[in-house]
Structures are given as structure tokens and as C-alpha cells.
Amino acid sequence: MQKLIPVVVIKELKDTKIILSALQKEGIYCAEITFRTACAEEAIKLAVQEFPDMEIGAGTVIGGEQCERALNAGAKFIVSPGLSGDVALICKQNNVPYYPGCVTPTEIMRALSLGITTVKFFPANVYGGLKAMKALAAPFPQIKFIPTGGVNRENLDEFLSWDKIAAVGGSFFVEEAMQKWAK
Ligand code: 3PG
């Protein structure tokens, strides 16, 4: 899995190539395309076809039906803001990694019971950031985290320097790449 996961919101299909090209120019070969816009599914399809060297996943997947659509579109990993049992089951059946949002011991225990050991920690800035994740790592040493929400250039390295961080997610990767490369 890639260490940097840009959270991508595609408002219009034509933006897909512009955004993903900018990310590649930044050296980032991963994108979590979020199911927050009407064209998300089409954008994933397009991204998978046009950017075969990138790891394209689907984000903000909150139910089974969306998950099926994301997988049919070619998503290689699935991210949710919280934990959905339906999504977990579909991902398991399709052998696709699922990163559910988990910020409490109970949520992490649920993830473990579903065979999931890497969770999104969201919104990381609100739920206590690195300090909270370190506290959770004591009873759950097998868990790895993907902090997302409030990650920025200033705090990125601090997250990345802890070995329990599987990856770091955020929209700021997209903002930076677009500012630099899409003018
Ligand atoms: C997400 O859905 O993961 C968040 O919107 C990303 O949060 P950020 O915009 O603070 O990076």
C-alpha cells in the first residue's frame, strides 16, 4: 500500500485527468476517489483505465450498494468514514482491502472481529491525533492506522515517522498538487 493517500473529490468527470496527472507529477501514485459526487463511479472507471500505474481506490463508501459499484468500476481499495459490516463482507468476498474509520476501542474490536487490522483514523485532528492513536496501540498492537482529517504539510512528517502508521490520507495532497501543476 502507498504511504500517501490523497482524498480526491471529482466534481466534473473532466477534472479526473487534470487532478491525477498533477498528483503523479508530485510523485504520488495513489488516489482515493470519494463517493461524494454524482460522477464518482465514472471517475473511478476513467482513472483505472487512464492511470494504470496508479492505485485507485474509492472513499466515502458508506454502504454495500456503493461498494459494489466502486468495485465494478475497478476500485482497488475501499475506504469509509466509519465501519460498515456490509462493506467489510463485500470487500472480503472480493479480496479487496477495506479501511474503515475507527476511533474508539469498540470500533477497533469490531474491525478485528471482521479480520481488519488497518483502520482509517478519522477525523484525526478531532479525535486526538497521534496521542490518541498511540494510546490505542497499547491494547491493540496489531492495528495500523491511516490518520485522515486535518493532516497538512506541517504535521505530515510527524505522522509518517511512527511505525504504526500504514499511510496518511488527506485532501491537502490534491490542493498542493493542483497549485503546483494545474495552472
Ligand atoms: C476525508 O474524507 O477523509 C476528509 O475529508 C479529508 O480530510 P481533510 O480535508 O482534512 O484532509
Would you write up a description of this structure?
Helix content is 41%, strand content 16%. The chain is α/β, with parallel strands linked by helices. The strands form three sheets. The protein has a four-stranded parallel β-sheet. Strands 4-5 form a two-stranded parallel sheet. The model has no long low-confidence stretch (mean pLDDT 97). The structure holds 3-phosphoglyceric acid.
DSSP helical segment count: 8
What's the rounded overall pLDDT mean? 97
The amount of beta strand, in percent, is 15-25%
Distance between the termini: 30 Å
Q: Approximately how much helix is present in the residues?
A: 40-55%
Bound molecules: 3-phosphoglyceric acid
Strand order of the largest sheet: 3-2-1-8
Which runs of at least 5 residues are low in confidence (pLDDT < 50)?
none
- H/E element order: EHEHEHEHEHEHEHEH
Shape: globular
> Major sheet: size, sense and barrel closure?
4 strands, parallel
By secondary-structure content and strand pairing, the structural class works out as alpha/beta
How many whole angstroms does the radius of gyration measure? 16 Å
User: Quick one: how many beta strands?
Assistant: 8
Topology:
Elements: E1 4-8, H1 15-25, E2 30-34, H2 40-50, E3 55-59, H3 64-73, E4 78-79, H4 85-94, E5 98-99, H5 105-113, E6 118-121, H6 129-137, E7 144-147, H7 156-160, E8 168-170, H8 172-181
Parallel strand pairs: 1-2, 1-8, 2-3, 4-5, 6-7
Helix pairs in contact: 1-8, 2-3, 3-4
The structure holds 3-phosphoglyceric acid.
Residues 7, 122, 148-151, 169-172 line the site of 3-phosphoglyceric acid (3PG).
